[in-house]
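Section 5.1 Outputs to date
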Amino acid sequence: MKVMEFLSTDVKSLLDIGLGAVSIMLWMRQGKVNKAQLILDEKQNKATEDLTTMVRDHDDRIARLEGEHLSQSRSRRPSRKNRIA
C-alpha cells in the first residue's frame, strides 16, 4: 500500500507545490553559497598573491642589504700593507 493512493488530488497537488517550493529555495540557497565561495576564493587568491609579492620583496631587500654589508666590510678592511702582523 502506498500512502499517496489515499491522498486526494488536491492534497497531492499541494504536496507537489510545497516540495517544488522547497527545491527552489534550496537551489537559490546553493546559488548564494556558490557565489560566496567564489568571492572567498578571489579574496584568498589576492591574499596569496600579496603574500608572495611581500616575501619576494623581503628576500630582495635582504639580498641587497647583505650585498651592501659585504661591500662595506670589504672597503673597511685595511690593506695588506697596513695590517699589523
